[in-house]
Amino acid sequence: MSQHNTLQRFLFDGIPVRGALVRMDGAWQEVLARHNYPAAIQNVLGQMLAASSLLAANLKFDGTLIMQLHGKGALRLAVAECTSERTVRASARYDDGIHDAPLAELLGEGGTFVMTLEPKDGEPWQGIVALEGDSISQMLENYMRRSEQVETMLLLACNDQTAAGLLLQRLPDGHGDAEGWPHVQALAQTLQQDELLSLDALDILYRLYHQEAVRVFDPELVSFACNCSEERVGNMLKLLGGEEVASVVLEQGSIEVGCEYCGQRYVFDDEDVNTLFGMDVINAVRTEQQRH
Q: Is 256 left (phi over 0), alpha (psi -120 to 50) or beta?
């Protein structure tokens, strides 16, 4: 298993703390290969992708964790997703000419953070909160503390080659010496960003916690994957309605939809659209237009 696309979960014996480390080289490169993101967007998306993988690691469900930032500034939307199979994808919408700036400045006033859990079976759950914090890590720490009542520490880093992160979470009382939580945090604070981006998980754990009893679980592979499909795009077109879709096809000859995550293009011509709606919607709209 590659040591550069892995998620490593661990647990302290005698201290009420669990954690995870993630380092994505190839998976992050797959995201960047599909979009020419400027540095400011790379920094946000890389950290969100690492964070979504870390938070999903501690969820016991089959489905997808979706992390979104909504803003009214130069950064309009940033999305990172991680599935229970440890596949990831990410995308962003932003203004031309965006430049490096603090997160709050990029999003502008009224920025919001949205966390969605979409189980394969059952109803989705969603939490929406106002932005609180000057960085992705601070924002998520505050969210976990206020919304989930879980003391959390996140260290996130990325460059144009790697996205990586360290997650620490305090477990409920009764799992060990509660005084160990500040000690574990203090040691984590000594980790440098270049170490997070370059060292393997076991090397980081030894570097920080070689004097502690740490239980390490089997590493898990993280990979890029997109679940877009012609069927999903077709369902989206159905929501637009036959009249609107047919009007576009009559004007342009076809309707083309691109996936914002992987760049795959889906083209629907008049025959495809008629099949999609189960009737000759193209001719019906053409006839209606001729009447007017």
A: beta
Task: Please state whether beta strands 152-158 and 112-119 pair in parallel, antiparallel, or not at all (unpaired).
Answer: unpaired
At residue 84, the 3 state secondary structure works out as: coil
Cα 222 to Cα 188, 266, 269: the distances in Å are 23, 27, 37
- Rg of the chain (C-alpha set): 22
- The reported pTM is 0.88
Mean pLDDT of 36-63: 94
Backbone region of residue 186 per phi and psi (left: phi > 0; alpha: psi in -120 to 50; beta: other values)? alpha
The yes-or-no verdict on residue 1 having pLDDT over 70 is no
The C-alpha atoms of residue 93 and residue 218 are separated, in whole angstroms, by: 36
Q: What is the DSSP letter of 112?
A: E
- For residue 70, pLDDT over 50 is answered with yes
Residue 141 is which amino acid?
A: E
**HSE (side-chain half, CA atoms, 13 Å) at 270:** 13
Please compute, for residue 153, the number of CA atoms within 13 A of its CA located in the half-sphere on the CB side: 17
Beta bridge partners of 77: 70, 93
Residue 80: closest CA among 92, 62, 70: 92
- Predicted confidence at residue 2, as pLDDT, reads 44
| Rounded-to-integer distance, Cα 139 and Cα 136, Å | 5
The whole-angstrom distance between residue 170's C-alpha and the CA centroid of its chain comes to 23
